[in-house]
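User: My advisor asked me to double-check a structure prediction for Carrier domain-containing protein before group meeting. I don't want to rely on an old file, so could you generate it fresh from this sequence?
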Amino acid sequence: MKDTFHRPVALALAFELGLDPTTIKPDQDLHRDLGLQFFDVVFVAQRLEEVLAIQIPLRALDGVRTVIELTRIVSLAPRKARKSVISTMRPAGQTHGGFRS
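Assistant: Sure, here is a fresh prediction for Carrier domain-containing protein from the sequence you gave:
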């Protein structure tokens, strides 16, 4: 499962750093090897949330050191709830209050 998520994590990190995604390795230290600060990791996580429709709690990023640790967090992140199309639909001619205009 982690291999499935390594590619999007590597792409997001590479985009942030201006690197070739193939140079991002699982054992690289986000801080020491890639030069990321905590806020950089948060930014990458936000990008991954948008692209993968997941929710990563900020506290989950605290203490993350390596690419594989970030990949694990992404792989375990819950999916964002999507609004049902049906719940947003109204019968023809009906407004918010249920009255016709």
